[in-house]
Amino acid sequence: MTEKPPYKKRRISMQLSTKDLNYLKDELSWELLAFKKCHHYAQECQDQQVKQLIDQMGRMHQQHYQQLLNHLNTGGVMPTPAQGPTNPKPMSQ
């Protein structure tokens, strides 16, 4: 039996339409806003269990934001600065 050559990663270059880029920009904005709201309400919360839950939700939105941004950056598509910071501040525990 012959061996197959090692798997090689191929980078596929794709052009995103303006509509796609606008959708991704909106999604980044939504994730950033959700993160900021969670951070705000966690700071206002008196109940520690609720505060932890809100912090957890905020971290999830922060991760989604960062994943989208990383995916766009590695794909060669650079978002505009109007989309928000590239690394929002982590939520305090």
TrEMBL record:
Transmembrane segments: none annotated. Residues 83-93 have a biased composition (Polar residues). InterPro entries: Ferritin-like, Ferritin-like_SF. Residues 73-93 are annotated as: Disordered. This is Coat F domain-containing protein. It comes from Desmospora activa DSM 45169.
